[in-house]
Amino acid sequence: MNIAVLIKQVPVSNDVSVDPETHALVRASSEGMINPADLNAIEEAMQLKEQTDGKVVVFTMGPPDAEKALRDAMALGCDESCLITDRAVAGGDTVATAKVLAKAIQLYGEFDLILGGALSADGATGQVAAMVAEELNLPHVVEIQSVKYKEDQAGKVEVVKKMHDTSFRIACATPAVLSVNFGCNEPRLATLRSKRAAKSKPLVTYTNAELGFAAEEVGIKGSPTVTVDSFQPETKKSAKMLTGTPAELAKQLYDLIEEEKGK
């Protein structure tokens, strides 16, 4: 089974700068790491690879230094990687990003599954995986807990999706796109040997010259949504001690709730 994994490099800390014109994160200005939920997606991919052979190829879009995230992913066992980097595709929203990722996957080869983290630690939109599926016209299941390959069900995988306290088992035809929940498994750790091996594993770089998009199709120009501002929300907390009989406490609590509702 050949598996593509979509990863994103996110800031290590909240100490990041924001472009004053586009209001987007300046990713080149801060240290990056693999988005936590994407590590869970890599782990699911590696478990499937161990069951079925095949290979795992990891994709990311970002500045040139996003190569580090790809090398880190290959140190976890991924076989190959692909970096999409070009000023023409930078700053795009989820729609433009999904378009670029889908085209890169098509250029690279055929895959039985495409996995990605359900949410990113910075944007947390939860949209990209489903949008990639739409671009590729593939079935998709979002926010899954696990995926299993069934030898007796050729061309299908079984995924587990939780909604509130209920788990659903879904048979999904392949090829398909799946987004993996954060914390659904225990991601493996890289070893010194695997880190050394990752340095020599294949890494392909695509620019817009290979992708072939017009300037108005991708990046900021190709984004139907625009970030108009970014700010740190103010948080105000207060506490009020209530005393009295149960009936008096209930009345005081009711009055406080009505007062807050009227603000």
User: So, CATH architecture?
Assistant: 3-Layer(aba) Sandwich
- According to DSSP, the number of beta strands is 11
Biggest beta-sheet profile = 9 strands, mixed
Strand content: 15-25%
- Decide which structural class fits the backbone: alpha/beta
Query: Strands of the biggest beta sheet: in what spatial order?
Result: 9-8-7-10-6-1-4-5-11
Principal-axes shape call: globular
Pfam family, one: ETF
GO molecular function: electron transfer activity
InterPro entries: ETF_a/b_N, ETF_b, ETF_beta_N, Rossmann-like_a/b/a_fold
Domain Electron transfer flavoprotein alpha/beta-subunit N-terminal: 22-215
Give the gist of this structure:
The protein is α/β, with parallel strands linked by helices.
Pick out its properties.
alpha/beta; two-stranded antiparallel sheet; 7 helices; nine-stranded mixed β-sheet; Rossmann fold; 263 residues
Notes on the protein architecture:
The chain is built from seven helices and eleven strands. The termini are far apart. The chain is α/β, with parallel strands linked by helices. The relative contact order is 0.17. It has one domain (3-211): HUPs (Rossmann fold).
